[in-house]
């Protein structure tokens, strides 16, 4: 996947100015600020300097927010005593890993030093050599790891290799923050599907368009710009054929900083989107059209296609998510109409809601943000936990996760 280097600067973005109070993370314009000790099982194992060093490693990892997919975001700091002598971040799949950058900068000072790494060092030969071996060769004395790497070819092997070489290894410092930074990677590897974020934009009464279909714009310019951050950090953007037909969106990222263009995934059921739609003729960003096999016959589409079986409700969504995971999709950002949104929610496939609400009322004769959910009882089913409520321009942005979210 090519990286669009729009600018060499890493600029603050509205979506990155957020607070994760439950995990002790605050972000401010691309920089992570982490509360020391939050998320650690054994806080006493680690010193104040350990926490400060891992917090800086997480800040470094965030530099790859828009560019590392399908790889995880990883940062590394090398410290000699209580002085940082090297640092690095993984910025692009196939490029050097964070540990390699940090060791290069540290040079001979890495010998006898402590390495702080946000994810377990790899122990296998992939597109790059194993980082565990690089740390062993540099003769570091101690390695502090925030979170384990669940990838089959790592999954404890990196820690094992370091310990076999006589290196002291500690795992779990700021683990919650490190996992939060790579929610999509953990979902893809452990659950075999992407982390699904459903974006909705509506009036206060949950309406997305007037009865005549007019919808530009329900929310303000600041909210629409804020969405660019969430698109950019995702590996793919999912929408429906009906949304493409009605709104003719481009579904691209518009940010003045480097990003890897997310794959646009258009889901069709009974009818295909018009081949004249703008996104099919924008070759700078890849597009994947997903539909039942019989629907794809007879048309030469100017994009990738994927045939998946369907039932009466449409393409089977779990199969779609599995197919996207097989393509290396970590985070799936969804912008669609009420029908597909409701289908994802009914199937309990949404991991996070990103809901923008404009201070206006459109009334019951307008189009709703969600289709029928089939809720018959006010039980815990369908309850959401509020992570954040933030004003963006004149609108509100709510971030929520299911009360019974799977462990990631």
From TrEMBL:
The keyword Zinc applies. The active site is at residue 99. It comes from the Bacteria. Zn(2+) binds at residues 97, 122, 131. Residues 1-24 are annotated as: Disordered. Pathway: Cofactor biosynthesis; riboflavin biosynthesis; 5-amino-6-(D-ribitylamino)uracil from GTP: step 3/4; Cofactor biosynthesis; riboflavin biosynthesis; 5-amino-6-(D-ribitylamino)uracil from GTP: step 2/4. The keyword Zinc applies. Binds 1 zinc ion. One of its GO terms (biological process) is riboflavin biosynthetic process. Its EC number is 3.5.4.26, 1.1.1.193. One of its GO terms (molecular function) is 5-amino-6-(5-phosphoribosylamino)uracil reductase activity. Substrate binds at residues 215, 231, 251, 254, 335. In the N-terminal section; belongs to the cytidine and deoxycytidylate deaminase family. In the C-terminal section; belongs to the HTP reductase family. Converts 2,5-diamino-6-(ribosylamino)-4(3h)-pyrimidinone 5'-phosphate into 5-amino-6-(ribosylamino)-2,4(1h,3h)-pyrimidinedione 5'-phosphate. This is Riboflavin biosynthesis protein RibD. It comes from Pseudomarimonas arenosa. The lineage of its organism: Bacteria, Pseudomonadati, Pseudomonadota, Gammaproteobacteria, Lysobacterales.
């Amino acid at each position: 996947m090519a990286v669009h280097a729009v600018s060499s600067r890493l600029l603050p973005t509205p979506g990155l100015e957020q607070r994760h109070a439950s995990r002790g993370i605050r972000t401010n314009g691309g920089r992570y600020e982490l509360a020391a000790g939050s998320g650690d099982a054994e806080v006493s194992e680690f010193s104040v300097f350990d926490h400060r060093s891992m917090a800086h490693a997480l800040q470094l990892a965030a530099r790859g927010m828009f560019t590392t997919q399908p790889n995880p975001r990883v940062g590394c700091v090398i410290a000699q005593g209580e002085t940082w002598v090297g640092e690095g971040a993984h910025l692009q799949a196939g490029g050097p890993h964070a540990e390699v950058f940090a060791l290069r900068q540290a040079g001979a000072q890495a010998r006898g030093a402590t390495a702080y790494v946000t994810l377990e060092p790899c122990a296998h030969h992939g597109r790059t050599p194993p980082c565990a071996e690089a740390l062993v060769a540099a003769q570091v004395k101690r390695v502090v790891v925030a979170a384990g790497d669940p990838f089959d070819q790592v999954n404890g092997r990196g820690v094992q290799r370091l310990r076999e070489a006589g290196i002291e290894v500690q795992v779990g410092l700021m683990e919650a923050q490190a996992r939060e930074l790579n929610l999509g990677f953990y979902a893809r590897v452990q659950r075999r599907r992407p982390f699904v974020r459903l974006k909705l934009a509506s009036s206060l009464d949950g309406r997305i368009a007037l009865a005549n279909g007019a919808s530009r714009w329900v929310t303000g310019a600041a909210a629409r710009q804020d969405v660019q951050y969430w698109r950019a950090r995702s590996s793919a953007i999912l929408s429906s054929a009906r949304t493409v037909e009605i709104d003719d969106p481009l579904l691209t990222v518009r940010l003045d900083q480097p990003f890897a263009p997310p794959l646009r995934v258009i889901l069709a059921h009974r009818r295909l989107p018009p081949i004249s739609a703008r996104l099919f003729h924008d070759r700078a960003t890849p597009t994947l059209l997903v539909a039942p096999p019989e629907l794809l016959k007879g048309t030469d589409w100017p994009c990738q296609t994927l045939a998946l079986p369907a039932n009466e409700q449409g393409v089977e969504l779990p199969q779609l998510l599995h197919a996207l995971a097989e393509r290396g999709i970590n985070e799936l950002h969804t912008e669609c109409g009420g029908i597909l949104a409701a289908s994802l929610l009914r199937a309990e496939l949404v991991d996070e809601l990103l809901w923008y609400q404009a201070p206006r009322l459109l009334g019951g004769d307008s189009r709703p943000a969600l289709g029928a959910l089939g809720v018959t009882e006010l039980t815990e089913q369908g309850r959401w936990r509020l992570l954040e409520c933030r004003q963006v321009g004149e609108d509100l942005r709510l971030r929520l996760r299911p009360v019974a979210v799977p462990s990631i």
